[in-house]
Design a protein that fits this description.
Elements lengths: L2 H10 L2 H6 L2 H12 L2 E2 H11 L8 H13 L3 E8 L2 E8 L4 H22 L5
Helix pairs in contact: 3-6
């Protein structure tokens, strides 16, 4: 793919689409850094950390959380909050490797983007 094509693709995408490509890594990193979180809390922390640039919908988040739980990367538990059950997600004991792999891939991706943004530094 030529640089011109990549530029066109990136400029026609909105920011949320760019975040979606990294969503798994971002959600895992958020849970790893913050500790157990429930779904709505994940969406709000992502919004806060991204200065309101990243909006994660329930339709995107919960299938991802369920997939990661089925893969054994996340574990969940339910606690009552104001007489309502709240499901929390945490990194499973054997999920640390996946978190580290995703973090490394995200860092590599950022470095590659930097090479395009600052080719003289690459």
């Amino acid at each position: 793919m030529h640089l011109k094509q990549m530029y066109y693709i990136c400029t026609t995408m909105n920011k949320n689409n760019l975040y979606k490509g990294c969503l798994e890594a971002l959600v895992l990193q958020l849970i790893a850094n913050e500790g157990p979180l429930y779904g709505y809390e994940i969406t709000q922390k992502a919004k806060l950390l991204s200065n309101n640039q990243m909006t994660i919908t329930e339709g995107t988040l919960y299938p991802l959380l369920h997939k990661l739980e089925a893969e054994g990367v996340l574990e969940s538990y339910v606690e009552d909050f104001n007489n309502r059950p709240r499901k929390y997600y945490k990194i499973a004991q054997n999920g640390d490797g996946k978190v580290q792999d995703n973090k490394a891939q995200l860092q590599e991706f950022i470095q590659n983007l930097q090479a395009f943004l600052n080719p003289k530094l690459a």
